[in-house]
Amino acid sequence: MKKDDSDLGYGLALTNNSKVGWAFSLPRTETCINATKICRAVCYGNGIRYQSKGQREKRARNLRTVEFLLAEGGPELLAENLSMLVEQARPRDWLTARVTGRRTVIPFTLRLNDIGDFFSVEYVLAWVLVVRKFVDCAFWFYSRSFVELDMLMALTELAALPNCQGWLSVDSENFSQAILAKCNTPVGVWKLALMQDKDLLPEVLVSLKESAPLGEVVHFPVHRGGHHVEPIRDKVLTTCPAVTGVYKLQSNAALARPCQICSFCLP
Ligand code: SF4
Question: What's residue 8's pLDDT?
Answer without folding.
Answer: 59
